[in-house]
Design goal:
mainly alpha, Membrane protein, transmembrane helix, transmembrane
Length: about 450
């Protein structure tokens, strides 16, 4: 049976949450006034706690912070990060100058990388890397806080669900590897604006998110499917217009700065299978697929994801919710893609919160993710010391475990999200005592503005 107490006070109903609260006084008491301080208090507390996990992430990368991010030391210590790499090259110019990130990153991520480089003072190579990493860390802390706030705003009755974003163990290992969380923050704010019935602003943020990381196209697709099902064509058109406008502006900005925003996508088409992709198992076995075949498989993965989304959203007997639909579609796209980097785990955290995933399943997934994180660096470092390297067969095993973990959270999201269906208006809900009416946020039902 669904339990609303699990959502409003996870420490009462979920053993992992109850054990974790031991360091701050234990589970919520029987007579505690749950929700009296509002969702903003929970979001503020979770954002502060998220900064602690990022601090642990800096500690995890202490070897590189002290001695630099050079290979193979950064690989053996599992402290590699793309951030310090962005500090190289001359200052000034544009993101599309020689050595700029514009040739390998989407427009807004390339601009963010270039902007941080301009803030980084000159000096020794190590000193420049350290300052760049420090500035990047501060930006990532703020972006995670923004993501937590946006997530909590979509589940205002159950804001502690945003702990899936702020307190996930994967923040320690993966949050500081790159600026992926930039796209995550933009996409989550976009979803929050859509849930609060601001379709134009939502579209602008989601379009910007696509220009920071491509995966938010999946979220936009899920919104389209749910909105069409619910007849919300007016808000949907305004949302899509906002997204298209943001993309056009970003492309125009790139061209105005002398760059070609399509460079990363052309490079992707010619890219071989990368780390994390199930297709990389064939590379480990010395039977790699051609880049063109991998591109076709990746495109077919998007098609399958949207066809499945169309089926799931159109079932007449079940009112499919947006969050589990988007998570399922995203997992399909990730697993059929050419690569699945260690920081890709950041993409799913807001959706795990919105589907009210149980902490047992979250921690099992995080355990697989962290184990894969460590084994990846040991495998990549292999050529420098084959005696202590991770064998290809062992790496393949952890890659498969990770794939199973992603399928598992997609499957579990449908069951967990059922707890969000409890509403005083539904026949199966028990009668409630007299008191203030419970306002259920839109995300719990359809994440769609009213039609019209």
């Amino acid at each position: 049976m669904p339990s609303p107490t699990r959502l409003t006070a996870p420490s009462r109903r979920e053993e992992p949450a109850a054990l974790a609260t031991g360091i701050i006084g234990g589970p919520v008491g029987r007579f505690a006034a749950i929700g009296r301080r509002g969702w903003t208090y929970a979001a503020a507390m979770l954002s502060a706690l998220a900064s602690v996990l990022i601090a642990l992430g800096v500690l995890q990368k202490n070897h590189c912070v002290r001695d630099g991010w050079g290979s193979p030391g950064a690989l053996w210590r599992a402290c590699y990060s793309d951030l310090p790499v962005g500090s190289g090259g001359p200052k000034g110019g544009t993101p599309w100058s020689a050595g700029g990130a514009g040739h390998s990153q989407p427009v807004l991520t390339a601009i963010l990388d270039w902007f941080v480089k301009q803030l980084t003072p000159g000096g020794s190579a190590l000193g420049t890397q350290q300052v760049y990493f420090a500035i990047g860390t501060v930006i990532i802390v703020l972006l995670i806080a923004l993501t937590t706030l946006a997530t909590a705003s979509m589940v205002r009755d159950t804001p502690w669900l945003a702990a899936h974003v702020a307190l996930s163990p994967v923040l320690i290992t993966s949050a500081l590897v790159s600026f992926d969380v930039f796209g995550v923050a933009l996409a989550t704010v976009g979803m929050a604006l859509w849930a609060r019935k601001h379709p134009v602003a939502a579209g602008i943020l989601l379009g910007a998110a696509v220009m920071a990381r491509t995966y938010p196209l999946v979220l936009l697709g899920a919104i389209v499917l749910i909105a069409l099902r619910d007849g919300a064509r007016g808000p949907l058109l305004r949302c899509l217009a906002g997204a298209a406008g943001a993309i056009v502006v970003c492309f125009g900005l790139a061209y105005a700065m002398g760059g070609d925003p399509l460079d990363p996508y052309r490079a992707w088409w010619d890219q071989d299978a990368g780390y994390g992709s199930p297709a990389y198992l064939l590379t480990v076995a010395h039977h790699p697929l051609p880049a063109a075949s991998l591109s076709i498989i990746a495109v077919l993965g998007w098609v399958v994801a949207f066809l499945l989304g169309l089926y799931l959203s159109g079932r007449p007997a079940i009112r499919t919710q947006m969050a589990p639909l988007a998570l399922t579609m995203l997992v399909i796209v990730m697993l059929t893609g050419k690569s699945m980097s260690v920081q890709s785990c950041m993409w799913v955290l807001p959706l795990m919160a919105l589907v009210a995933l149980r902490w047992r399943e979250h921690l099992m997934w995080a355990g697989a993710e962290i184990a894969y994180f460590v084994m990846t660096w040991l495998y990549i470092a292999g050529p420098s010391n084959t005696a202590k390297a991770m064998p290809g067969a062992a790496y393949s095993f952890f890659l498969l475990i990770r794939v199973i973990a992603y399928v598992g959270i997609a499957w579990a999201s449908w069951e967990s999200s059922e707890d969000l269906r409890r509403d005083p208006a539904t026949p199966h809900s028990p009668p409630k005592a007299a008191g203030p009416a419970r306002v259920v946020p839109d995300v719990n039902h359809r994440l769609t503005p009213d039609a019209g």
